[in-house]
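[audit] Reproducing an earlier prediction to check determinism. Same input, same settings, fresh worker. If the C-alpha cells differ from the archived copy the diff job will pick it up downstream; this log only records the rerun itself.
[audit] input (489 residues):
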Amino acid sequence: MDRQAHIVRGFKATLVARGVYMVSSSLLMLVLARYLLDPAGYGELYWAIGILAVVQLFADVGLGKSAARYVAEYREDDPGQIPHLLRSTVTAKLIVIGIVAYTLLLFHEHIASLLGDPGAAPFLAAGVVYITVNSFNVFAQIVFQGYNELVYSAAIQAISGAARLVFAVLFVLAGLGALGAFFGYIVGYAIAAAVGLVWLYRTVYRKYEGVAEFEDGLSRRVLEYSVPLTATRSANVVDKQIDIVLVGFFLNPVAVAFYTLAKQLSDFLLAPAESLGFTISPNFGEQKVAGQLEEARRIYETALTNAMLLYVPAAVGLALVAEPLMTMVFGAEYAGAVPIVQVFSLFIVLQTITNLTSDSLDYLGRARSRAIAKGATSAANLLLNIALIPTIGVVGAAIATVATHTVYVLVNLYIVHSELTLHLESLARSFGRICGITGVMAVAVLLVTPLISSLVMLVGAIAVGVVTWGALAVASGLLDLQQIQSVVT
C-alpha cells in the first residue's frame, strides 16, 4: 500500500470513528442540555471536568506523545526497542498518576472551597478515577497514532464516546443528576482504556522481540522530549479548559453552560479537520527521516487548502444561523450562548489550521518551538480572560481565545514554512477563491435567514448554503468530485 492510500485509509477510519465520537458527544450534549439537566447542572458538570483537565496535565506530563514520536522513529530503524520503550513509559506514567491521584484525594475538598464551590468536592473525589482511566485512554490512542495504525486509535476513541453516552444517560435517568453524568464519563473512558491497552499489548508490544538491552539514553530522550510536549499540552489546556474554570469562578454555572455548549458545538464541526491532522502527522516524521520533504509539503498544502475550502464557509454559515440554531435545538434558555457561538465561528477556522499543523510539528521535531509559542499565547489568553470576563462577561472569554489563538496559528504557519518551504503564492490564490465562494454563499444564506421559523426551515437554510457552496467549489476547480468519489469508495 503506497503512502497516499495509507493516508486515505487512515483518514477514513479516523473520520468514521471521530464521527461516532462526535455524534455520541452531540447526542449526550443535546440530551443533557435539553432534557435531563438544567443550565446550572450542565454548567456544574463541565466546570468540574474543566478543573480535572487542569489536574490531568500533571498526570500525563507529555509522556504519551513523546513515546509515540519515538515509536514512529524506531518502528523504521530499530523496532526491537519498542517493547522496552512502552514498558518504561507505562511505568513512568503509573508513578506520576499515583502521585497526582493521591494528592487530589487528599486535597479535593480544599480545592473545591478555594475555587468557591464546595459542591464540586464529590466530582473532584471521583476525579481520582477519572484522570487515571482517561490518561490511559488517551495514551493508547496516541501510541497507535505514532505507530501509524490509525484504525485502532480511531476505534478506541469511538468506543469511549459511545460508552460515555450510554452510561451517562443511564446514571442521570437513575436519579444521580450531574454527578451521574460524570460517572458515565468515567465508565466510558475506563472501557476504552482497557480495550486500548489490550490491543496495544497484542498488536504492538508482543509483535517485536525485544532486544537484549534498552538503547542507552533512549529512556532519557523520551523524558526530555516530554518536557516541551508537557508545556504545549499545558498551554492547550489553558486555551481549552482554564477559560471554563474562570467563567465559573467569576460568573456562575449558567454562564459556564453557555460557554461550554458553544465550545462543544465548535468541537463537533472540527471533527473532520482533527481527523485529517491526526492522520497525516505521523507521516511527516517518517518523511523527514527519509529526506522526502517535497512529499511532506505536497500533503500539507493539499490538506490545508481542502480544509479551508470546507471550514471558512462553514464558520461563516454558523455565525449567520447561530440564533435560530441555539434556540430551536437546545431551547430558548440557551439564547445567551448565541454571541459566544458567533465569536467561536472565527475560532473554528483558526483551530482547523492548528489541527493540521500542531501534531505535524511534533513529528518534525519542532515540539520545542511550538511549545514556546503555545506557552506565550496561552499565558496571554489567561491574562485576557482574567481581564475580560469580569468586565464584559462570558463573551470576553471567547474573544480572548480567538485573539490569542490567531497569534499562535501565525507562528505555527511560520514554523511549518521554515521546515517545508510552502508555496505561499499558490496557497494565497486558493484562499482568495475560497473567500469569494464564501461571500456568495453568505449572501444566499442571508436572503433566507429571515424566513426561518422552525427546524425544517433551519435545515432548509443550511441546505441552501451547502448547495451554493458545492456548486461554486466545483465550478472553481477547488472541489474535485472524482477525487471525493475515490476516497469514499
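[audit] rerun output stored. Observation attached for the diff report: The chain has 16 helices and no strands.
[audit] end
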